[in-house]
Amino acid sequence: MDACKAVIVDLDGTLLNTLDDIGLSVNRMLRARGLPEHGTDAYRFFVGDSGVDVQTALAAGMQAFGAAWGFRGKPELLKNGCTVLLDHPVDLLKFIS
Predict the structure, then answer these.
(1) Is 65 helix (H, G, I), strand (E, B) or coil?
(2) Backbone angles phi, psi at 71, to 5 degrees
(3) Which phi-psi region, left, alpha or beta, contains residue 94 (left: φ > 0; alpha: ψ -120 to 50)?
(4) CB crowding 49-69: b at 16 or more within 10 Å, else e
(5) How confident is the model over 50-62, as pLDDT tens digits?
(6) What is the pTM of this model?
(7) How many CB atoms are closer than 10 A to CB 87?
(8) Rounded Cα distance, 63 and 39, in Å
(9) 30 closest CA partner among 40, 18, 16
(10) How far apart are CA 43 and CA 40, in angstroms?
């Protein structure tokens, strides 16, 4: 596989594990407005590295690399056409120069 010439990386759930921060922040806003709060795990499906990110990469004519450690995991990435599945961030190094 040729080295990548451009890389676009998703931040939340890929480079940073921000799920707790997102849940706390949004729940604080919901609470302040008298609206029901959600458990932190629910935010895994409200936001995020995953199906739409793969679809965006493919629509842009790019290879879609998926981060298996992200918010939603391998099944969603593969279902949406992920072309390369990474199990650890360092795995990306063999594809970039």
Answers:
(1) strand
(2) -55, -35
(3) alpha
(4) bbbebbeebeeeeeebbbbbe
(5) 888 899 999 999 8
(6) 0.73
(7) 11
(8) 34
(9) 40
(10) 6
